[in-house]
Write a structure and sequence with these properties.
Elements: H1 22-29, H2 49-67, E1 71-74, H3 79-92, E2 101-105, H4 111-124, E3 128-132, H5 133-138, H6 155-164, E4 169-171, H7 180-183, E5 188-191, E6 219-222, H8 230-240, E7 251-258, E8 261-264, E9 278-283, E10 296-297, H9 303-311, H10 317-321, H11 331-337
Parallel strand pairs: 1-2, 1-4, 2-3, 4-6
Antiparallel strand pairs: 5-6, 7-8, 7-9, 9-10
Helix pairs in contact: 2-3, 8-9
Length: 341
């Protein structure tokens, strides 16, 4: 396994605090006198739903850093990991984020996302650790799959990187609304000595109390935005003015139809002879491995338009755009049991 590190001077958080979207301003304007959250999503104290979700996530991040010795954040440059990193910058501002970020690089990533990843860690002065699937294929520890996707091949490099870095806590951007398997996760989720997850062995989490006890060799996965929805994520990105890779916004691209998705034309996702390449206006709801990630037709070219589009969507982003999750009903859960994200 190859781990590479980069670092740069510290800088400010990803975006200034206090920025509010039109939806959030409406939330605040509709506050009730009740102590509970009103229909408009505002508490009597004037806190919106996003404020409460942000506070919970920052609390989780600070708790993990206080309780564990060597945390790390899984960072791919995708929107969810970008939001978690943004929350970490707010949690420890004006200081720098006190842990590195780790990317398991399949080698089939979108170039725009890799460029964004590198720009972000350089700007924030955070150490980047990279575990490359290609290194494992080159030395024979892994073999290419017949379907060409490398997403399932990330598990071994991830577990090796966690062991090499002696990371006892791994932050992730997974959310419960993404997948049935991820809905079973706790916010602090134990992994055994082999990095595996047992969905039947979950710890209770009452009153925002999190049990991080673990024996040597074990580690936990921490999911600060577990209770967020895709819409919450986009409303928060709009509110905070968080920068993202351009793939998330509508753009013209050469694509072809396969399995009900628009697949990108590229060296890792070539069309078959029977598939016709078309030029369409699309955007990506998730930006994983090119070989298994599809686009959706969309004219949403800014954050407000994306928020409006996601608000009426009836499919999660993984269900709509990730071919590897369609292999079986338990595809994600099987990979998570083996140590996947």
């Amino acid at each position: 396994m190859t781990l590479s590190n980069t670092a740069a001077a510290p800088t400010a958080p990803l975006a200034p605090e206090g920025r509010r979207s039109s939806a959030d301003r409406a939330d605040r304007a509709g506050a009730s006198d009740s102590a509970q959250i009103s229909d408009s999503g505002v508490t009597a104290a004037g806190l919106s739903t996003l404020d409460l979700l942000e506070a919970e996530a920052i609390h989780v991040i600070r708790e993990v850093v206080a309780e564990f010795e060597r945390p790390v954040l899984l960072f791919s440059g995708g929107k969810d990991s970008v939001v978690v990193l943004h929350l970490a910058t707010k949690a420890f501002a004006p200081g720098r984020v006190p842990f590195p970020v780790l990317h398991v690089d399949t080698g089939h990533n979108f170039p725009e996302v890799i460029a964004f990843r590198d720009e972000t860690v350089e700007r924030l002065g955070i150490r980047l650790e990279v575990a490359r699937v290609q290194d494992y294929i080159d030395d024979g520890r892994l073999q290419e799959r017949a379907d060409g996707t490398r997403n399932p091949l990330q598990t071994l490099p991830l577990l090796d990187a966690i062991a090499a870095g002696r990371h006892d806590a791994v932050f992730g951007g997974a959310r419960r609304d993404e997948d049935k398997a991820r809905a079973k996760e706790r916010i602090i989720s134990l992994r055994d000595e082999f990095g595996q997850w047992d969905p039947r062995n979950q710890r209770p989490e009452l009153w925002s109390l999190y049990n991080g006890r673990h024996t040597p060799g074990q580690h936990v996965r921490a999911f600060p935005i577990s209770n967020w929805t895709e819409l919450d994520v986009w409303r928060y990105i709009e509110r905070e003015g968080i920068a993202l890779p351009p793939l998330y916004f509508a753009h013209e691209r050469d694509v072809y139809a396969r399995d009900g998705m628009w697949r990108p034309v590229g060296p890792f996702s070539p069309p078959r002879e029977t598939e016709t390449v078309e030029r369409r206006t699309v955007r990506y709801r998730t930006v994983g491995d090119m070989s298994c990630t599809g686009a959706v037709e969309s004219d949403a070219a800014d954050l407000a338009a994306i928020v409006a589009e996601v608000a009426v969507s009836t499919l999660t982003e993984r269900g709509a755009t990730r071919a590897d999750d369609r292999l079986s009903e338990a595809a994600m859960e099987d990979r998570k049991k083996d140590g996947y994200f």
